[in-house]
Write a structure and sequence with these properties.
Radius of gyration: 17 Å
CATH superfamily: Spore Coat Polysaccharide Biosynthesis Protein SpsA, Chain A
Distance between the termini: 33 Å
Largest sheet: 9 strands, mixed
CATH architecture: Alpha-Beta Complex
Number of strands: 9
Low-confidence stretches: none
Number of domains: 1
Mean pLDDT: 93
């Protein structure tokens, strides 16, 4: 069972080696790593070529943003399973993908998701938040639940059937995709109850209060676009689980 790992990069020289090394160190053999670079002006591409890795495809060209790059990666993916690992994120250990594949095989599902550690940007051993996802039940999204996207794996056939990332969303296209496949189309899923990814703090959404506000607006739009009801209190429901993550380190 081939697994395609897609990483979007743009001037990612400070973190890309950690990312590709975490993929290269996986004890699961059947992996292709796809790098979609947005025409970086630093030495990101040179660094990728400087170390042993499992990168099968590298594309470096201008794009319209992160989700456009992810869509390009999905189009090039040959794997039955697709995972997306950000250029500043790393897998927790070398048997992460083995566990994911075992879950797909054992439970015969279309989607596997797990937990995630938020870590300090300069020290990935220092855990700041523990995103304990919990098991999905119908209606969970409108109560503020959603999976951690870097720990979310989907069969390529689901993308083929229900579509890729919606580029009309600038900050919440990953949320909209997960909402669409789990809540609207109710694909079969399995919750792997352990952290699989370390995610550095400092993502695009959390850079400013304006971005956080706009992401919440996009999340509400995502519900409506998919014909799903949501309360005007949704931003509050969304905030409460995130606050709890700081107390479960």
């Amino acid at each position: 069972m081939l697994v395609s790992i897609i990483t979007a990069t743009f001037n990612s020289s400070n973190t890309i080696l950690d990312c590709i090394n975490s993929v290269d160190s996986q004890n699961y053999i059947d992996i292709e790593h796809i790098i979609i670079d947005g025409a970086s002006s630093d030495n990101t591409i040179e660094l990728i070529g400087s170390v042993k890795n499992r990168v099968k495809t590298i594309v470096s060209e201008k794009d319209t943003g992160l989700y456009d790059a992810m869509n390009k990666g999905i189009a090039k993916a040959s794997g039955e399973i697709v995972g997306i690992l950000n250029s500043d994120d790393i897998y927790l250990n070398n048997n992460t993908i083995s566990k994911v594949v075992d879950a797909f095989r054992s439970h015969e599902v279309d989607c596997v998701y797990a937990d995630l550690f938020y870590v300090e940007k300069s020290d990935t051993n220092r855990i700041v938040r523990y995103w304990r996802t919990k098991e999905y039940t119908l209606g969970s999204f409108r109560r503020g639940w959603h999976p951690a996207h870097p720990a979310f794996f989907l069969r390529k056939s689901v993308y083929n059937k229900y579509g890729n990332f919606d580029l009309s969303f600038k900050l919440a296209s990953d949320f909209e995709l997960m909402l669409r496949v789990l809540e609207k189309h109710q694909v079969s899923s399995f919750y792997l109850q352990e952290p699989l990814v370390k995610m550095r703090l400092g993502g695009e959404t959390n850079k400013s209060m304006k971005n956080i506000y706009n992401q919440n607006l996009e999340c509400i739009t995502a519900f409506r676009k998919n014909g799903l009801k949501v309360s005007y209190l949704y931003p509050v429901y969304r905030l409460l689980p995130k606050l709890a993550q700081y107390f479960h380190k």
